[in-house]
Amino acid sequence: MHSKWQLLPTEAINPATLGIDKLSPAGIIDLMVDEDRKIVAAVTREKERIALGVELISQAMRKGGRLIFVGAGASGRLGVLEAAEIPPTFGTDPSLVLAVMAGGEKAFLRAREGAEDNYEAGARALARLRPTSKDVVVGVSASGMTPFVRGGLGRARTAGARIIFVTCYPGTELQTFVDLTIAPAVGPEVIAGFTRLKAGTATKMVLNMLTTGSMVRIGKTYGNLMVDVKTGSEKQKDRARRIVTMVSGMDYTAADRLLKRAQWNVKVAIVMQKTGQPYRQALSKLRRADGFVREAIGEDIEPRLRELLAAPQAAR
Prior knowledge:
- The chain is α/β, with parallel strands linked by helices.
- It folds into 2 domains: 9-217, 3-Layer(aba) Sandwich (Rossmann fold), CATH 3.40.50; 234-315, Orthogonal Bundle (Helicase, Ruva Protein, domain 3), CATH 1.10.8.1080.
- It contains 13 helices and 5 strands.
- A 5-stranded parallel β-sheet has the order 2-1-3-4-5, with helices on both faces.
- Helix 3 links the parallel strand 1 and strand 2 (97-101).
- The radius of gyration is 22 Å and the shape is globular.
């Protein structure tokens, strides 16, 4: 008789790490680095599906939809991390990217064993967010079997939401239930069953690509600059000033004055500087361009950034 987990690739014994407990610290690290090299290859094999996920999410956001992560344990924490980091990085409303994890907020810091086994709790947790057909729900489960995640995805399907499933088990039966499966096959873990390692790293890479790619596609960057950054801290204000100086060529003090006139909106400040328009007109122009700075000012940023990269460090 076999357990249902026994045949999962994430639970398998890794033949390359059988004697890890006999190695020196340096030997352990060498072994882990060798295993981690397999992660990029596994994620690369999924790049077409990841790109489809980016398009699915960005299209939903343009139509007023949200991105919702549902997960448990380490996988759930990765979803929560994305939901926490996107608003300050890209200036989004906190309601745009959300996450639920088994055991609730307390489980983020302290594991609540057994919470992941509750299918109904997953359905209830997602129901509290009132998913609609406009939303995209991303289930995250290294094993592909977590009941809490399945419950959440079942509720998402009932609501008509689009569903992406991120797992490290390519053979998951959920492939027939969701719109898109992204399944980097990283192989057995360094420590059998410890999915916070290769599976966790691969999952983080995939989620990074899904969220960052979506933010780029909805106009949150100009080139590779975070022009929609929030400016609630001094560090963020400094970044805003530096972005404006890079794009405009004006000095740091002038950038500060411009940002104050632009109500600390980096995008509007750039449009004001490039078009000579006052705040309200620049804001209106940006809105007509759906928030894309490049379209609003009709100017590429790449030549300016290459010029800065070629300049001596002291001149930047």
